[in-house]
Amino acid sequence: MENVLTIRNLTKRFGRLCAVNNLSLTVDRGQVFGMLGPNGSGKTTTLGMLMGVINPTAGEYLWLGEKPTHHIRKKIGAVLEHPIFYPYLTGRQNLELMAMIKQAPTSNIPRVLDLVELTGRENDKYRTYSLGMKQRLAIASAMLGDPVILILDEPTNGLDPMGIAEIRSLIQKIASDGKTIILASHLLDEVQKVCTHFAVLKKGNLIHSGPIDDVGKGAEVVEVSADVADLDRLLDTFTGLSALHRQNGYLQVTLKDGFKSKDLNRFLFEKGVVASHLVTKKKNLEQQFLEILNTHDESL
Amino acid sequence: MTLLHLLRIDLRKLTGYRTFWVVCGLYFLTLGLTSASGMEFLKWLARTFEDFGSKLNINRIPLYHFPDIWLNLIWCSGLLKIVLGVMVVISVTNEYSYRTIRQNIIDGLSRRQFLASKILTNALLSLLSLALITVIGLVTGLIYSPVITFDRIITDTEFLPLYFLEVFFFLSYAMMLGILINRAGLTIIVLLLSRVIEAVITSNIDDHVPWLIQYFPMQSIANMIPFPAPRYAFQEIRDWVDPLSVAIVAAWTFLFNWLSYVKLKRSDL
């Protein structure tokens, strides 16, 4: 698969603070790549370096296999941190200016305005826009140059649930066109819903990178309850048990590798106990993320 | 990307900005009015003198006669360049406070191109000032000069390109301050105080290294375009171009633009 982005040992220090430490990463064509990490983990600094606004202390990166130049940036649609426009210009004037910079045809403007459903407000000054409209204009501007790569940094920041859903379906729509998307976010739910791959940063270090399908693999957790007094003692004798916790009034059984919930169900049945509640807990990205962060707590 | 395209990018930012129209409108209006109304000022002066019983022959003061008119106009108009300088500061510091400079780079301008678009606008504003002064000089000169010959008209016009250099020098200085300081208010204060600060320094070193003073930026402008009024007090003034002073101003202009480039290249936006 073609490498869209290759990062090799990228490092940025601000004085004594190391914002990004020796980061190496690749993104392939067609991926929707999620960059996760708590606030201040170096996501925006990394993207800033990739877009030429922050000078790296060390390391290098390649876009589409080439050394970065401002010509390549014209093929990338990027919005970092929050929407940035000239407040005294209208939405359309801002896009026209951007088209001049990207040397993109202005005939794209109606199409991208339509895409983000801003067509009715294009001639109003940018400063009169609501936050959601600003975010949508930012996405429109990123789409303006017909980019092969899209970089979105917290695109749903500060939006209401409806706005978040709108942006999410927009991202999915764009991704289905085969564009490569790099999405930085701390909303894990968000990333899980739209991304194909993800990486986790913490204090400038890359601590995990892989496909999102891997999430949920590993030990299975089953939640049980039954109308018997000593269920926990009974479960202790189950050979497939690796850990047992009590949570929300239920017993959480972590199974050993190779054991499934049906094994637990059969075990209980053989012991003459009928479970009144038996649910396989699918591990979500949030749990995985916290787990990754926690396992690295000691090492960092 | 052609230079014209870069200029159009910066003009697109400015032409949608009302402050730009107001400031530039006031600048060119004031420039036009003050330089065209010197004769009215002289008439008013003569009337005032008459009220006190003395007589002032305004034809003895050939403010608007070729060739005096050129240096008179150029020197007076030079005082107004501060207004354009403030406009340039606003244009540059806006890019920082709105963070649009960051977005411009992200969108695909190189830092060099961004700077070039600003420098080109500075050149255009300087050129417009020059054009206005040339037209006003020709028109008022033709109206008021008692003797009009081609020789008299073109005498001292070699100061016109120097006027362009003076304005461009100052706008480059304003742009550099904006890029170094980033904040509009502070930059404007430094810009306004520059001449004063320089005067304080030069007056202190006057006794020790007087030859150095001509190399100071604001002083170099004063040396390049001499103050014309003393000639009406029957004193000699220099009405020829001093190559050294022009070289010093040109060197400063280059330095301001180059420092802007170095700062922009190195900074994280």
Question: Can you walk through the features of this model?
Answer:
The complex is a heterodimer of chains A (300) and B (269). Chain A is 32% helix and 30% strand. By secondary structure, chain A is of the alpha/beta class. In chain A, helix 4 packs across helix 5. The radius of gyration of chain A is 24 Å and the shape is elongated. Chain A starts with a strand and ends in a 5-residue tail after the last helix. Chain B is mostly helical and 269 residues long. Chain B has one domain (3-266). In chain B, 74% of the residues lie in helices and 0% in strands. Chain B is built from twelve helices and no strands. The longest helix of chain B is centred in the middle third of the chain and has 34 residues, at 111-144. Chain A binds chain B through residues 48, 51-55, 69-71, 73-74, 78, 80, 84-90, 93, 96-98, 100-103, 141, 145, and chain B through 1, 5, 8-9, 12-13, 16-18, 98-100, 102-110, 113, 266, 268-269.
Poorly predicted residue ranges of chain B: none
Low-confidence stretches of chain A: none
Characterize the overall form of chain B. globular
Supply Rg of chain A: 24 Å
CATH domain class of the largest domain in chain A: Alpha Beta
Globular, elongated, flat, extended or rod-shaped: what is the shape of chain A? elongated
Which range best describes the helical content of chain A: under 10%, 10-25%, 25-40%, 40-55%, 55-70% or over 70%?
A: 25-40%
* Protein structure class of chain B: mainly alpha
Helix percent of chain B reads over 70%
Mean pLDDT of chain B: 90
Order of helices and strands of chain A: EEEHEHEHHHEHEHEEEHEEHEH
Q: So, CATH architecture of the largest domain in chain A?
A: 3-Layer(aba) Sandwich
What's the tally of helices of chain A?
10
Q: Tell me what portion of residues of chain B adopts beta-strand conformation.
A: under 5%
For the biggest β-sheet of chain A, the strand order reads 5-6-7-3-8-9
The structural domain count of chain B equals: 1
Oligomerization status of the protein chains: heterodimer
Greatest interface: A-B, 30 and 25 residues
Total number of helical segments of chain B? 12
Amount of beta strand of chain A: 25-35%
